[in-house]
Amino acid sequence: QVQLVESGGGLVQAGGSLRLSCAASESIFSINRVGWYRQAPGKLRELVASITSGGSTNYVDSVKGRFTISRDNTKNTVYLQMNSLKPEDTAVYYCHALRGIFNYWGQGTQVTVSS
């Protein structure tokens, strides 16, 4: 059982930045992929960014050039650096880990971007 704890959400003005952290209870070397998802009110949860154990990254088009996913293996932590935030980035952001056939989710952290 992998436990994920997100932090770093908050309220920021449009154009500002936030860095989200996802701390895993186990070595992230054992995790095939870690992703950041978000869900806005009334919308489906969407994958924002992901990083594999090999370091490959992927982003949804709406955040390319603004968000960066990275990881610190020594801290078992994956980060999502969010720059040039827009009101439409407002959502609850969830960390997700895929290990084999098992999926794990964090509790979510709220990001609110004011215009």
Description:
The chain starts with a strand and ends with a strand. Strands 2, 4, 5, 6, 9, 10 and 11 form a seven-stranded mixed β-sheet that branches. Strands 1-3-8-7 form a four-stranded antiparallel β-sheet, with no helix packed on it. The chain has no helices and eleven strands. It is an all-beta fold and 115 residues long.
Distinctive features:
115 residues; four-stranded antiparallel β-sheet; 11 strands; seven-stranded mixed β-sheet; mainly beta; globular
Topology:
Layout: E1 4-7, E2 10-13, E3 18-24, E4 33-39, E5 46-52, E6 57-59, E7 67-72, E8 77-82, E9 91-99, E10 102-105, E11 109-114
Parallel strand pairs: 2-11
Antiparallel strand pairs: 1-3, 3-8, 4-5, 4-9, 5-6, 7-8, 9-10, 9-11
In short:
This protein has 115 residues and is mainly beta.
Rg over C-alpha atoms, rounded to the nearest angstrom: 13 Å
Terminal-residue CA separation? 40 Å
Give the total of beta strands.
11
Mean pLDDT: 96
Strand content: over 45%
- Unreliable stretches, pLDDT < 50, 5 or more residues? none
**Main pleated-sheet profile:** 7 strands, mixed
Q: What is the general shape?
A: globular
Query: Helix segment count?
Result: 0
Given helix and strand content, the structural type is mainly beta
